[in-house]
Design a protein that fits this description.
elongated, mainly alpha, 0% strand, 73 residues, 3 helices
Length: 73
């Protein structure tokens, strides 16, 4: 079995598993993946810019994830 065959089989298996999930389970899975993405992005930012305060880190996270910059007064 080649790599493409293995990847296709893995994708089929994953699709099969996802189809059996309830809507609530799918939502939970999506929320967990979203939280993981935020955590990894925040950790990467903290690693690259250790001098940032928590508020500045939050601002950078918004830019990285959503392309928006918060306006502070």
């Amino acid at each position: 079995m080649g790599m493409r065959d293995a990847a296709a089989r893995a994708a089929e298996l994953q699709d099969s598993i996802h189809r059996r999930l309830t809507p609530a389970e799918r939502l939970r899975m999506a929320m967990e993946m979203s939280e993981l993405a935020r955590s990894l992005t925040r950790a990467g930012l903290r690693n690259r810019k250790p001098e940032l305060t928590e508020a500045e880190l939050d601002d950078e996270l918004l830019v990285q994830l959503y392309g928006i910059r918060r306006v502070r007064s």
